Amino acid sequence: MTQVKLEKQLFGTNGVRGVVGVDMTPDLALRIGTALGSTTEGRVAIGRDTRTSGEGLSAALKAGLMACGCDVVDVGIIPTPGLQYLVRGRFSAGAMITASHNPPEYNGIKIIDRDGTEMGDEGVVRLEELVFSGFYRIASWDKVGREKKDPSLVDTYIDGVVGQVPAAIGEGIQVVIDPGSGAGYHTTPAILSRLGCRVLTINATPDGTFPARLPEPSPEGLEALASLVTGSNSAFGVAHDGDADRAVFIDDKGRYVEENQEFALIEQFICRRQKGTVVTPVSSSLLIEKIASSCGCTVEYTPVGSIYVARRMMGMIAKGDRVVLGGEGNGGLIYPGHQFCRDGAMTAAMMVYLLASAKKPLSTLLDNLPKYHMIKEKLVTREGKKVVQALEKVFSGDQLDRTDGIKIVRDRCWALVRGRVLNQSSGL
Ligand code: MG
Predict the structure, then answer these.
(1) Which fold has domain 16-151?
(2) What are the tens digits of pLDDT across the range 115-168?
(3) What is the distance in A from the centroid of ligand 1 to the CA of 169?
(4) Hey, which residues are catalytic here?
(5) Domain 163-367's class?
(6) At how many degrees (to 10) do helices 344-358 and 80-87 cross?
């Protein structure tokens, strides 16, 4: 199966993102809302993370949608996977105002298709054409849309995640949750409490200035979480990025869990129970392949970007293949029995389930995983194409994988060189 990344001018891998007041403005939000409204009929769900600019951008986006005749339901602050969960089967589309892991001065818009997945490249290119051309489908005065605010829909998402794991599975497990003042502040604590866990929180007040740590859950920002985990003798700590689609962990010894190891541990837990395929981008550690094969499962590789993983999973399942898990080595995991997008709260719930079943500390489980090492570096160049051509020449005798950039594959290691245009803070 081939997936080709189409060229987009405005949208990156994860929607439109930019610095508020510079390239992410109410005017742009209005145009995107009007473009989406021109291609959609019915009700559109709107959600946002905790950023200071969220309400204003949301108002502009909604104005565009209603001008085209779409009714909007504003859910308020909700994780991106929460909005995606709500859209599937309930709405014609969704729009999430978030800049995910980026610093507070950023914000962005991510469009959700009616099936709950991020809008694919083709839809996005069509939307961009409308934004640039201005050929909108504006409704007459008697056909304009209405707005309804319904923050209670967040509970539907909470119920959905809780229903994915056995009832009361968290009894006897104490955890610390660090939503980083972001969109998971009210959802993950509620979900793990409902599972029976004793829940402690840090940075669980919504605050778009992100006063305690940046929205990216990096090891440097999680020292307070690590201290609270060890100081309170908790089983683990979990932290989210700004829109809570990713979850990263601190083990019971206060150590940051490298994200490929987190992925591998949950993969091992799932693959021991179900046989099938694990879908992941070409950038994931060989550890993922090692765990899959040791459990009798296989790995399917995609280009980098969770949307490619999600859509490949859906395509394979539609063909009758068994897909047990999807994910990236950044704390973003996709559970096909739940929904086809990364879900940080679901990953936290799965960690509780895993620990309750293993009856061993998280640190022991991690120490038992095979050891792999990964070095990532970013280089800025205007000669990207020449670099790839040179690599193809030098490594022509090797096995080369061109799923995304160029990957030189050997028995026990690989190297991947891939590029992206640095015109916005796209990413995770
Ligand atoms: Mg995110």
Answers:
(1) Alpha-D-Glucose-1,6-Bisphosphate; Chain A, domain 3 (3.40.120)
(2) 999 998 889 889 999 999 999 999 999 999 999 999 999 999 999 999 999 999
(3) 27
(4) 100
(5) alpha beta
(6) 100
